[in-house]
Amino acid sequence: MDIGHWQCKRLTLCLPHPLMSAPALPSPPVTKREIWIDLLRGFAVLIMLETHCVNVFLDPSTVANPAWMGWLNFFNGLAAPTFLWIAGYLQGLGIRRAIATNRPLLTRQRLLRLLLICLLGIALQIPWSPWLAGDYGIASWTSLTAVNILQCLAMSLFVLLLLGAWMRTRYDLATALLAIAVILAATAANGWSTGLMPLDSWLNRNNGSIFPFFPWFAFCAVGSLMGRWELSWKTWMPLALLMIFGGTGIQHGPFDQTHPGFFFERLGYVLVFAIFIHATSKICRISWLQLIGRQSLFIYVLHLQILHSLPLPGGSPDKLWANQLSLKHTSLALVMLLLICLAFAWLNEQRQNRCRPANPMPAST
């Protein structure tokens, strides 16, 4: 996913365009591909909101069927692979277009956007509470240096850009080889350590990282590769089913996120999501879901602030109702959170539209 096309272009400062005085060019039409991508991204955001509401509010003892929670947790775990796959898919499209037109890839604009995403990810986990209390112990630094989804996404896209700039005509081959290497090395990476916590956090989950480079980069890489081919259920569905059943079949022993089976099984479900969302986009566009997809980064930051930082009497929501709500009340909390995010996302998009020129030049990916 080219971050310029996906999220960060919505954060670009409203500076005068050097060609605004030139004759206005028509805006490029929105294609079906762009519609289904926004819908798929919006669907992933819905999973993310539901996941965090369940994790924060739901009292598991109120669920009549505990086995249902296991299936829900598995489904919730598909949000991150979907985000990363979309990111890689769009990044691959942008890199191939740049190579085909002989344009540079490591531009200042692209690099600043990726840096912004990475810094935002770090800012979201600054340990304010212990630091303000004078606690600068190892636990606070572990929290700060842990790798979250935004940092993983930014680094993965940066690596893809490096491959595109370095290999160019052999970009897809280099991406495929690196993806295979990351998938196969992920289990071994569990035992890797350099002694430097900020670096080790990128290698494995031993220092609190949720999305280390191994194996999560591979979702971006495979997404980039699949952008080579037009989405067709006739070819993608058999591939998805092969990955789901093959990934399930090769997994043995306790649950392990670094096992190749973990990667292939979840990638298969991501492809199933893409197939059905692509088919849905031909029937209806679901404008509110597209809005969520377009404003995914904004909603990501907003919902975390609401859940963990909203100053209510007695504390933030995650402190007031931590795992205390029934399934019914958790569902109501999810609906309220979704409506709030939708309202602010709409306002944010209106603000962004006012900042843009009346007839903007077509944006490069």
TrEMBL record:
It is found in: Cell membrane. This is Acyltransferase. One of its GO terms (molecular function) is O-acetyltransferase activity. It comes from the Bacteria. The keyword rRNA-binding does not apply. It comes from Phragmitibacter flavus. Keywords: Acyltransferase, Cell membrane, Membrane, Transferase, Transmembrane, Transmembrane helix. Belongs to the acyltransferase 3 family. The chain crosses the membrane at residues 39-58, 70-90, 111-128, 148-166, 173-193, 213-229, 236-255, 291-310, 330-347. One of its GO terms (cellular component) is plasma membrane. Pfam families: HGSNAT_cat (PF07786). GO terms for biological process: enterobacterial common antigen biosynthetic process. It is a multi-pass membrane protein. Residues 33-230 form the Heparan-alpha-glucosaminide N-acetyltransferase catalytic domain. The keyword Amino-acid biosynthesis does not apply. InterPro entries: HGSNAT_cat.
